[in-house]
TrEMBL record, chains A, B:
Assembly and oligomerization: Homodimer.
Xref: Gene3D superfamilies: NAD(P)-binding Rossmann-like Domain, Winged helix-like DNA-binding domain superfamily/Winged helix DNA-binding domain
Record key words, sorted: Cytoplasm, DNA-binding, NAD, Repressor, Transcription, Transcription regulation
DNA-binding region per Swiss-Prot/TrEMBL record: 26-65
Occurrences of domain CoA-binding (ranges): 89-190
Protein name: Redox-sensing transcriptional repressor Rex
HAMAP family: Rex
Region (Disordered): 222-253
InterPro entries listed in its UniProt record: CoA-bd (IPR003781), NAD(P)-bd_dom_sf (IPR036291), Rex_actinobacterial-type (IPR058236), Rex_DNA-bd_C_dom (IPR009718), Tscrpt_rep_Rex (IPR022876), WH-like_DNA-bd_sf (IPR036388), WH_DNA-bd_sf (IPR036390)
Domain of life from the UniProt record: Bacteria
Function: Modulates transcription in response to changes in cellular NADH/NAD(+) redox state.
PANTHER family hit by this protein: REDOX-SENSING TRANSCRIPTIONAL REPRESSOR REX (PTHR35786), REDOX-SENSING TRANSCRIPTIONAL REPRESSOR REX 1 (PTHR35786:SF1)
DNA sequence: AAATGTGAACTTTTTCACAGCA
DNA sequence: TGCTGTGAAAAAGTTCACATTT
């Protein structure tokens, strides 16, 4: 690395669409399950079903990574697991700090899928001095004062914020100042960060509100449906996750 | 579909884009904060900044709801709060059950923003008989056997699954059979549900993997940047959340 | 025969830029 | 004058359908 080269690494044209990146972990999970069952190969159709997406989308997604399948056969499970892991950066180990060891922080610390896939909890940090030293998920909680030291010593670049909303921005600023460049925010606040820092948020109440919106609409539809001869059959098992789910679009006049 | 009607209802063309729906809770939160500070009106620019989106997008989003602003002035905070709440279905009260009262379930039960905005925890349910009766967040945990009864008695239509992955599909099936039509899934599994049921998922490990992807790319870029005279200034405070975060596209020529 | 990989069509979402109103 | 509301353009994402390869 670090040469005077002006071109993108001879690899394949970078620029995997963000939507594709967001689905790679889904594929990886499905593939890992297959791998554990020692399934050697899988078709786009099968894998797509397991991941809950459609097969054309899956093939298109994989096409951004390269040609890892075999026509007439499908994909080699182990090989794909490796390729996707590599693409996601999971072949290296990412130390992560969790700040705010309340109920949620403890839940996160205990979350198994964490350690399993490339991530390692480097430290648990809480502002409450009473918590200091107390082990959570086998890791002793450290006081906020130690934050900068921990991040620098362990080379932490990913931080998880599970504090109350009021403390989140301040914690975020400290994390960023200490060198963290990716933040997963569970606090219900918009964080502002310098350029070059990634923030993703997970927000229970937003998810519930989106569900309520669709739920309300369903209720309206039912009322409308009552006025109509026969409600169309609802019950085809469909696999569908993510942002929408249905969005039918009927509506009373 | 069902009737012979071919035209859209006379109402304002329903069909708020899904992307817009997903942002409404964000606007609502920002507006609620303003309302608490007794701010009477707000411009699209200000509100957009508070919500972490750009103002054109916000205006476009609001335009799907109707014309609730005043040109030259901005939006009336209270009025908008009401309109968005109504649109999201938050003017009614949604009873919610949480299934799986481990660390995460407890965290969710204790989550304040829950009760505050239209949602009410109708019951906490766990498969462990030892948990039964134990109060969490002031609510006694009930055994899974009671699930169907609770859902029917309380008219619950939204369920939260916080069980281990292995139990999730089974719990989901029972919820759906009992009448739940919206599910928020915290278990790391793809749930399959009948048509007409909405599922949204929240998945810590997926979020971390997406961060790792970008983090890895940053590392690569840095190395590339070392070969270039001077790294462009990174540090303009930017507000940016959601799916991407940055995706800088530095790309040496 | 089976299943990938991908141009091309289509849909959704974002951004632009400005007319129109208070 | 200031700021909304929105057509129109651009970008991103999804789906189709089929030539290509094993």
């Amino acid at each position: 690395m670090a040469t005077g080269r002006t071109h993108r690494p001879a690899t394949r044209s970078r620029g995997i669409p963000e939507a594709t990146v967001a689905r790679l972990p889904l594929y990886l999970r499905a593939l890992t399950a297959l791998s554990e069952r020692s399934v050697p190969t899988v078709s786009s159709e099968e894998l797509a079903a397991a991941a809950g997406v459609n097969s054309a989308k899956l093939r298109k997604d994989f096409s951004y990574l390269g040609s890892y399948g075999t026509r007439g056969v499908g994909y080699d499970v182990e090989y794909l697991v490796y390729q996707i892991s590599r693409e996601l950066g999971l072949t290296q180990d990412w130390p992560v700090v969790i700040v705010g060891i309340g109920n949620l922080g403890a839940a996160l610390a205990n979350y198994g899928g964490f350690a399993s896939r490339g991530f390692r909890v480097a430290a648990l940090i809480d502002a409450d001095p009473g918590m200091a030293g107390k082990p959570v998920a086998g890791i002793p909680v450290q006081h906020t004062d130690e934050l900068e030291k921990i991040i620098q010593d362990d080379g932490v670049s990913i931080g998880v914020i599970a504090t109350p909303a009021g403390a989140a921005q301040q914690v975020c600023d400290r994390l960023v100042a200490a060198g963290v460049t990716s933040i997963l925010n569970f606090a219900p606040t918009v964080l502002s960060v310098p350029d070059g820092v990634d923030v993703r948020k997970v927000d229970l109440s937003i998810e519930l509100q989106i569900l309520a919106f669709h739920e309300q609409r369903k209720a309206g539809e039912e009322a409308a449906a009552d006025a109509v001869p026969h409600v169309a059959a609802r019950k085809q098992p469909s696999t569908d996750q993510g942002p929408d789910g249905d969005v039918p679009a009927v509506m009373p006049a």
